UniProtKB/TrEMBL annotation:
InterPro entries associated with the record: Asp/Glu-ADT_sf_sub_c, GatC
Assembly behavior: Heterotrimer of A, B and C subunits.
Record carries keyword Coiled coil: no
UniProt record, GO biological process: glutaminyl-tRNAGln biosynthesis via transamidation; regulation of translational fidelity; translation
Gene3D superfamilies per record: Glu-tRNAGln amidotransferase C subunit, N-terminal domain
Name this polypeptide is given: Aspartyl/glutamyl-tRNA(Asn/Gln) amidotransferase subunit C
Name of the gene encoding the protein in the UniProt record: gatC
PANTHER family xrefs: GLUTAMYL-TRNA(GLN) AMIDOTRANSFERASE SUBUNIT C, MITOCHONDRIAL
Domain of life: Bacteria
Organism: Palleronia sediminis
Keywords attached to this entry: ATP-binding, Ligase, Nucleotide-binding, Protein biosynthesis, Transferase
Record carries keyword Metal-binding: no
Length: 95
């Protein structure tokens, strides 16, 4: 697949990036280089290779999945401009 200047201009517009008309040729060339790298990756045989999260083996920390109230209500409400009965108090906005 090859990217021309028209397609490069469209991609720039979709990404909301202003690209001067003089720079579209260079942008199209960069896109073509990136697509070349992707095509090289598609040629790699990954049959039997398990996905990994990191290059070094790691075990994720696990905790029991239980519902709590967080135990920080007073700390959270301490910065509220107006708190009543353990909740944030806000002005009424709907009549």
């Amino acid at each position: 697949m090859s990217i021309d200047t028209t397609t490069a201009a469209r991609v720039a517009k979709l990404a909301r990036i202003r690209v001067e008309p003089d720079d579209l040729e260079a942008l199209a060339s960069e896109f073509n280089t990136i697509l070349g790298f992707i095509e090289q990756l598609a040629e790699v045989d990954v049959e039997g290779v398990e996905p990994m999260v990191s290059v070094t083996p790691q075990r994720l920390k696990r905790r029991e999945d239980k519902v709590t109230d967080g135990g920080q209500q007073a700390r959270i409400l301490s910065n509220a401009p107006d708190a009543r009965e353990g909740f944030f108090a806000v002005p009424k906005v709907v009549e």
